[in-house]
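Narrative of accomplishments. A recurring question from our advisory board has been how the design workflow behaves on a single, concrete structure rather than in aggregate. To address it, we present the structure tokens for one chain from the evaluation set, followed by the sequence designed for it. No filtering or post-editing was applied between the two.
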């Protein structure tokens, strides 16, 4: 940490600046400040917001109170999360935006996923000396991992298409928050500390996030005036400043030549992104995935995300059983086995549809689900990796496993953030956004206050199974497969539930578990969000949170499940429309420090 202090002081002296540098965290007069209270559940009328952060939720609610709609509130909330959740989101990343339009009773989606540069080839993450994949952490901490960001254009497209306000107005509350600062909580401190050794290697990252060479102190006020100025100009000049103008050139220069600090412990490879990659970036407005689950319409995100197809396939497999006839052990066993099978199919068949013929219709068909469900032994867990199925009809193949299982489970960063919004007119947004790892590539654009993503490490560095087609290898302009699963459930054409989560590949199992426990097991939405989680992703072991009771663990192990402890799986944000026109916003009570839910007019 001493290295960071010396670098910051040297940079200040070289530039002739005062010692109050951008990003410094300062204690409040009279001692540490108190972070805003987090309320995990709120019920009432007039609109709702749920996110991981109370400042972001408050900003979204303020937009709704001033007459904005769910899209306006979602963009304002997301921009605020770029301030308070900079290691999980921001304009240096991308995401998926799912929107329910109350007037047309239709669901629309925006694919704002990052793309590979035009110069990226299939062997980009292979060591030319050996032909083998480079170590994963060397891919993460690298300009090579930086994909063309989609978040700024996602915000602009959503507002222009469905919103009622300008990008400048939507960014203004977050600009003020970045300028004024927010109170550092334990989660922000701990995330900074966990990334300190790599943040220390990039000069502007160390200056911003390691003031005085240390993570910001809990209770101090963290300010980001660089980001405030960036939001101000982005609002005034529009997203062309990012994609065709000066800010874009700064992003390209930073990725190509990461500002590595003297004496850094890591070698940051140069990035491949160029100005033309930014200029050519496009948002994909596409049809959502859709399936009927026990009379409800479940809408999700189509590829390049694997969220909608994998959650959907697992739900279809579960629909072949009657939850009323199952006890908790049987229900949990079937949930894990359905997820195991769906992940096998995800890994083999899902990639960017501009490059891969994704058999989406087959993956979401009832016939294929029945064919896969017949492989579930009610008394014994399958041994992973299980082989993928063939989603092409006819679905009359014998009930036995076939095909070649994948050799390893893909790696995805556990960071990301999710938010949901609803307005007085019944419009709903479920939006997941990310910069991939917690802290992304660790590369901050100098003077701009935001981190660049490491999203291209979501590609498989080499085929998972040699000699077998892999849909998720790098290619020029390709979008890496994602597990982000923003979801909206309708009943009779009107919204019932909106949900999503961060957590890498565990996003899929988190959303799946929340839905099944709410819709099948009789839990309320707050109970379903709070319930201890299990995650099976066609891996050798099922990950289990500490709260899973010992008797259930024992019963699962007796059926052959191999259990592995995971202290925290996902961090959901959700909402549900209740009878009488009320809406309930739900956030995590404890995971990731707890979330913040709010409604415009709370119940009295």
């Amino acid at each position: 940490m001493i290295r960071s202090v010396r670098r910051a002081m040297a940079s200040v002296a070289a530039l002739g600046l005062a010692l109050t540098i951008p990003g410094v965290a300062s204690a409040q007069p009279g001692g540490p400040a108190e972070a805003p209270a987090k309320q995990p559940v709120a019920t009432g009328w007039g609109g709702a917001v749920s996110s991981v952060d109370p400042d972001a939720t408050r900003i979204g609610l303020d937009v709704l109170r001033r007459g904005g709609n769910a899209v306006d509130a979602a963009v304002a909330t997301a921009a605020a999360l770029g301030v308070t959740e900079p290691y999980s989101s921001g304009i240096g990343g991308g995401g998926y935006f799912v929107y329910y339009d109350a007037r047309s009773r239709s669901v629309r989606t925006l694919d704002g996923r990052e793309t590979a540069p035009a110069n990226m080839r299939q062997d980009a993450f292979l060591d030319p000396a050996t032909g083998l994949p480079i170590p994963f952490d060397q891919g993460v901490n690298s300009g090579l991992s930086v994909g063309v960001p989609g978040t700024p254009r996602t915000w602009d497209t959503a507002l222009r298409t469905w919103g009622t306000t300008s990008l400048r107005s939507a960014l203004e509350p977050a600009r003020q928050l970045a300028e004024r600062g927010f109170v550092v909580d334990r989660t922000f401190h701990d995330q900074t500390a966990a990334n300190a050794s790599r943040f220390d290697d990039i000069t502007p990252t160390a200056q911003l996030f390691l003031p005085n060479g240390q993570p910001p102190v809990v209770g101090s006020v963290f300010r980001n005036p660089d980001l405030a100025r960036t939001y101000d100009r982005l609002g005034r000049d529009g997203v062309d400043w990012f994609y065709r103008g000066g800010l874009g050139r700064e992003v390209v220069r930073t990725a190509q030549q990461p500002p590595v600090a003297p004496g850094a412990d890591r070698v940051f490879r140069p990035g491949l992104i160029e100005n033309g990659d930014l200029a050519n970036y496009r948002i994909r407005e596409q049809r959502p995935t859709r399936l009927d689950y026990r009379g409800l319409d479940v809408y999700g995100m189509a590829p390049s995300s694997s969220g909608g197809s994998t959650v959907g396939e697992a739900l279809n497999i579960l629909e072949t059983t009657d939850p009323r006839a199952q006890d908790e052990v049987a229900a949990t066993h079937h949930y894990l086995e359905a997820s195991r099978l769906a992940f096998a199919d995800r890994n083999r068949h899902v990639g960017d549809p501009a490059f891969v013929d994704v058999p989406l219709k087959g993956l979401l068909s009832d016939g294929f689900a029945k064919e896969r469900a017949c492989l579930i032994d009610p008394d014994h867990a399958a041994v992973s990796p299980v082989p993928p199925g063939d989603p092409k009809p006819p679905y009359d193949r014998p009930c036995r496993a076939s095909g070649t299982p994948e050799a390893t489970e893909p790696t995805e960063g556990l960071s990301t953030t999710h938010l949901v919004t609803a307005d007085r007119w019944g419009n709903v947004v479920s939006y997941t956004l990310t910069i991939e790892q917690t802290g992304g590539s660790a590369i901050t654009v100098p003077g701009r206050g935001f981190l660049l993503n490491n999203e291209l490490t979501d590609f498989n560095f080499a085929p998972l199974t040699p000699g077998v087609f892999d849909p998720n290898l790098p290619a020029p302009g390709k979008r890496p497969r994602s597990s982000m699963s923003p979801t909206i459930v309708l009943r009779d054409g009107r919204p019932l539930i909106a949900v999503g989560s961060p957590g890498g590949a565990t996003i899929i199992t988190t959303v799946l578990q929340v839905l099944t426990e709410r819709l099948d097991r009789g839990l309320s939405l707050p109970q379903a969000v709070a319930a201890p989680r299990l995650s099976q992703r066609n891996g050798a072991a099922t990950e289990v949170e500490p709260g899973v009771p010992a008797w259930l663990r024992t019963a699962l192990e007796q059926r052959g499940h191999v259990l592995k402890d995971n202290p925290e799986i996902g961090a959901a944000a959700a909402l549900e429309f209740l009878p009488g026109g009320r809406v309930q916003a739900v956030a995590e009570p404890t995971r990731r420090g707890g979330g913040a839910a709010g409604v415009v007019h709370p119940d009295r």
